[in-house]
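User: Hi! I'm working on a homework problem where we have to compare a predicted structure to a textbook description. Could you give me the structure for the chain below?
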Amino acid sequence: MKSAAAWREFSRDMRRDEILDAIIRVIEERGLLDLSMRQIASAINLTVSTLTHYFGSKDQLYVQLFSRVLELRATRLYALAEGKNTLTGVLRELWEENIADSSLRRALVELEVYCHSLRRADQMKSALSTAKNTRRQLFRELIEKEGVPSKTAGTMAAVVEDAFTGFVLDYMSNPNSAHVKRAFECFTDMCELKLAAETRPAE
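Assistant: Happy to help. Predicted structure tokens:
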């Protein structure tokens, strides 16, 4: 049973996440870099003092906002994995969401730039590393589920995670680039061939 202090901390964390989620919705509509703390507070019907109470400063608000966006994406990734039982099924669904979600992708880039400009690179790097490891671990689990040995699955998951990130970044730099889409389709086809080769019974 949780103590009173533990419940207070839990409630505070829940409220903090609710505020961050509300700010994310504002960012999707307006962008981020031109928003002041007062404008953010006004947009979500809070006071600046309330934001300061939960986040301390504008710098820390943006750092936590960046981490929250990555956390939500990780949650979505696991939800996709539950609905799609294959690696390539998850990759294709995740790709469609990434290329459609232009507003939130822009927010991620803006947040990254902002964190760098505030010399918060270490905190941002930690959040990105956690997100990267989460994707890699999920890809590994999906690959192992298809019958690939654990060691090989780990290597494949690392390659898939790096390649997928590269495709998304390429597309972000040129959203109308048809060759990036074709390259991704070829990549998923190659993944299917590799999985089939790794799970084919020895002759």
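For your comparison, note the following. The mean pLDDT is 82. The CA atoms of residues 39 and 48 lie 9 Å apart. Good luck with the assignment!
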